[in-house]
Design brief:
By secondary structure, this protein is mainly alpha-helical. The chain is 69% helix and 8% strand. It has a two-stranded antiparallel ribbon with strand order 1-2. The longest helix is centred in the middle third of the chain and has 37 residues. The chain is flat.
Amino acid sequence: MGTAGITESEVRARVAWRVSGSGEGERGVKFIVDNGREGAVWQKARQLFGLLNETGMAQEELAETIVAINHMRRNRPQAPEEFISELADALVCNFQIIHNNGWWNELHEELKYSIGKLEKKIESANLNEGH
């Protein structure tokens, strides 16, 4: 067993997704999560606080991110910093849920699908501009 009650392979596991730019017909972003350190923290948090609290915190952090987005739309001076901070908190909470349920592959597939939808939307908008 490795750190915080997880196996050595889980500690060493890294999820590195190249959703685009890989030369395999995909475009977009590179997304990396280190399941070693973060995974140990997320698993320990679940042991201490439980799944119900984990999902409640994620919901709260997403709501705070929405408020920060509204502040940016109103051009409040500290809004960008607020947004980054709230988004980071929301990502940590949601990645904790993903990690503890083993949904990394599903998330990866959904990210690719979502980027594909955005590409189609952009292509459609470009076609409409030409008319």
